[in-house]
């Protein structure tokens, strides 16, 4: 079986089920707007300090929306015990994992499509191609790690508790580099190209590592 | 005295000798004063912690290869011991930083990556406690251990790319006077012995827990027999 076709099929299945239930995306879209609201009142934002605070709020919203989105990745599979059925097919577990990760990445990117314009609207920060590509580049690696650990905690008690504990430390490199890239894309700080280069390196490294580890996590 | 008590006694005695070396033999630092004596245990504990986490990494990789229970127990023991030594490193570092840098904490590369190190392996211990013991838990632990080990140098590197205030490695570039160097090397050796003894004892505890689990496992509740229906 062609692993790429398996991955695409799994991703399409997940996205179709999301399209039919409309469960995660509307909830997360509302969630990120609420995060901006909390950021606004938590920081007492005015026109002078908005540019300094907006990148931090952006990453907090992305990180927590990501945790919720990736935590839900295996929820439906668990409730219907359909993951075991998928693993019984000749499809490789790595391809199944890649499909789940693709779908989760797409879902988080849809939320970011709500978050970034909302950030510009509420905080008056610039919205440019540099900013969007930095967030998207970070999303790829964060999704690979997040879905791997979502698969890990899917069979553990207190999974909602464990997913952030295990995932957040591993996301820190993405926040460090992504934070720097977004800051310079918003016109504060420099080093955009170096930060984007780092983000790309982290993406490659963690996508390779997670696909190597996926076999041990899903295979049972 | 059993084997573990003997080993513990040796380790404690060695640490007391190291303490004497630190406070009596080693000269007082000209610039920093007595607070510099934190250095000896601070760096030694960090090295011991790295050693413990290497055990987690190697144990995890061996487990993923051949499902060796021994490797998994060593990994668990290494994580528990490493978290203790990382805590020592962090707390002593903060106590040292306050008088010298004027603050307990700064977001420097080495501090940030050590804090991440602590959180990764504290998460490891938590996941091992919450996951039902067995193959699944051991695999989860192995994956977390491997990713944690890869993550820490990356965090370090990505923050260094910003800036760093932590002093670089003073030992390798010959900046220590011979008495300080001797004290440091001796303290490091003693700390490594202590870490090895703690890890070994912890390994024994993990083994006993595994055995206990296997004793408890086959226990099943047998439903009471249905009464024969009246004819």
Concise account of the structure shown:
The complex is a heterodimer of chains A (220) and B (231). Chain A is an all-alpha fold and 220 residues long.
List keywords for this structure.
heterodimer, A: 220 residues, mainly alpha, 9 helices, globular, B: 231 residues, 6 helices
**Shape, per Cα inertia axes of chain B:** elongated
Poorly predicted tracts of residues of chain A: none
Radius of gyration of chain A: 18 Å
- Low-pLDDT regions of chain B: 215-219
Molecular shape of chain A: globular
Number of strands of chain B: 0
User: Helix content range of the residues of chain A, please?
Assistant: over 70%
Q: Mean pLDDT score of chain B, rounded? A: 85
What is the radius of gyration of chain B computed over CA atoms, rounded to a whole number of angstroms?
22 Å
Determine the fraction of residues in helical runs of chain B and give it as a percent range.
Answer: over 70%
**Which sequence of SSEs, written as H and E, runs from N to C of chain B?**
HHHHHH
Q: Report, as a whole number of angstroms, the end-to-end distance of chain B.
A: 68 Å
Helix tally of chain B equals 6
Provide the structure class of chain A: mainly alpha
Structural class of chain B: mainly alpha
Count helical runs of chain A. Answer: 9
Portion of residues in beta strands of chain A equals under 5%
Tell me about the biggest sheet of chain A? none
Could you describe the 3D structure shown?
The complex is a heterodimer of chains A (220) and B (231). Chain A is built from nine helices and no strands. Chain A is mainly α and 220 residues long. In chain A, helix 1 crosses helix 6 and helix 6 packs antiparallel against helix 9 (192-218). The longest helix of chain A is centred in the middle third of the chain and has 31 residues, at 93-123. Chain A is globular, with a radius of gyration of 18 Å. The two termini of chain A are 20 Å apart. The mean pLDDT of chain A is 88. In chain B, 74% of the residues lie in helices and 0% in strands. Chain B contains six helices and no strands. Chain B has helices at 3-25, 38-66, 69-101, 109-130, 135-160, 178-216. In chain B, helix 2 (38-66) runs parallel beside helix 6 (178-216) and helix 3 (69-101) packs parallel to helix 5 (135-160). Chain B is elongated. The model of chain B is unreliable at 215-219 (pLDDT under 50). The chains are: A mainly alpha (220), B mainly alpha (231). At the A-B interface, helix 7, helix 8 and helix 9 of A face helix 4 and helix 5 of B.
């Amino acid at each position: 079986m062609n692993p790429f076709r398996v991955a695409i099929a799994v991703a399409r299945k997940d996205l179709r089920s999301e399209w039919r239930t409309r469960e995660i995306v509307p909830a997360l879209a509302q969630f990120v707007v609420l995060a901006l609201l909390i950021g606004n009142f938590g920081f007492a934002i005015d026109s002078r300090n908005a540019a300094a605070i907006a990148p931090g709020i952006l990453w907090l919203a992305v990180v927590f929306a990501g945790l919720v989105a990736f935590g839900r990745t295996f929820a439906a599979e668990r409730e219907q015990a359909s993951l075991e059925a998928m693993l019984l097919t000749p499809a490789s577990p790595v391809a199944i994992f890649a499909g789940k990760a693709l779908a989760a990445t797409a879902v988080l990117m849809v939320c970011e499509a709500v978050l970034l314009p909302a950030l510009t609207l509420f905080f008056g920060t610039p919205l440019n191609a540099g900013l969007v590509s930095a967030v998207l580049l970070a999303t790829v690696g964060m999704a690979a790690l997040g879905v791997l650990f979502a698969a890990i905690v899917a069979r553990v008690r207190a999974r909602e508790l464990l997913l952030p504990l295990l995932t957040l430390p591993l996301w820190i490199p993405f926040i460090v580099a992504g934070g720097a890239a977004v800051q310079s894309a918003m016109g504060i700080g420099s080093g955009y190209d170096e930060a984007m280069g780092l983000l790309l390196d982290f993406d490659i490294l963690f996508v390779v590592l997670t696909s190597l580890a996926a076999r041990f996590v899903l295979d049972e | 005295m059993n084997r573990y008590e003997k080993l513990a006694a040796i380790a404690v005695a060695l640490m007391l000798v190291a303490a004497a070396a630190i406070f009596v033999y080693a000269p007082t630092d000209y610039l920093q004063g007595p607070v510099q004596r934190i250095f000896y245990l601070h760096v030694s504990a960090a090295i011991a912690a790295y050693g413990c986490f290497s055990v987690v990494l190697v144990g995890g990789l061996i487990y993923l290869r051949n499902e060796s229970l021994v490797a998994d127990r060593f990994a668990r023991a290494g994580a528990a011991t490493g978290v203790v030594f990382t805590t020592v490193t962090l707390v002593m570092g903060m106590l040292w930083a306050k008088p010298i840098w004027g603050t307990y904490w700064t977001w420097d590369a080495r501090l940030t990556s050590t804090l991440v190190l602590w959180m990764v392996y504290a998460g490891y211990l938590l996941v091992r406690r919450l996951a039902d013991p067995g193959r699944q838990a051991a695999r989860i632990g192995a994956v977390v251990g491997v990713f944690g080990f890869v993550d820490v140098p990356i965090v370090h590197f990505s923050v260094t790319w910003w800036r760093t205030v932590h002093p670089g490695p003073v030992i390798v570039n010959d900046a220590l006077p011979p008495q300080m160097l001797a004290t440091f090397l001796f303290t490091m050796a003693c700390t490594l012995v202590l870490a090895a003894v703690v890890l070994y004892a912890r390994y024994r505890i993990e083994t006993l827990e595994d055995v206990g689990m296997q004793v408890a496992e086959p226990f099943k509740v047998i439903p009471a027999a249905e009464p024969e229906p009246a004819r």
